[in-house]
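User: Structure please.
Assistant: Input sequence and predicted structure:
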Amino acid sequence: MTEVRREVFGQMPQEEGGGVVEKFVLKSNSVKVEILSLGCIIAALETKDRDGKFSDVVLGFDTLEGYTRKHPFFGAVVGRVANRIAKGRFTVEGKEYQLFLNNGPNSLHGGARGFDKVLWSPQVLPNGVCFFRLSPDGEESYPGDLKVWVTYTLSGGELAINYRAQTSKTTPINLTNHAYFNLAGQGSRDIYDHEISIEADSYLPVDDTKIPTG
């Protein structure tokens, strides 16, 4: 059984377009997650440790002000294209597009005002919330009207994120969530003594500007 609660988190500044930012709290017997209508941000994710104690394991802010200032995409959905596009240029169907450069010589996470910085329209579900947004043709210089649905559902101890997109023109799209995890929980110093194992057959090297070498 998942409990879904909806509340007001804050008001966007007028220079950012105004609008009310809502917070949605999904809670099961083992997980509690807080998600904002701004950028579909996961603001908190509490889960039980081995001793049954709840702890917040993602980085974020307690107030809206933290998210309206510059931050490293804490918990947000990033797009239209997550990661870097070299020199901010790509060619689709014979036409070259130039994007805003916001990461040295490259375009990062959707450009100057990506999906992390805009308000999404929410719909409450029995066990979660679905956010919708229409990214208009030409937004951040990408082609096509792009309809995007991001759905968070909580079932027991599993939080699932589903992404769906529909476009009117051929366009690059690569959506992801940008949460930073610290599995030791809020208040712990850092993650430098954590170990992670990835059973991969191969990996993709990157150059000095973090563009894959191919």
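The mean pLDDT is 95.
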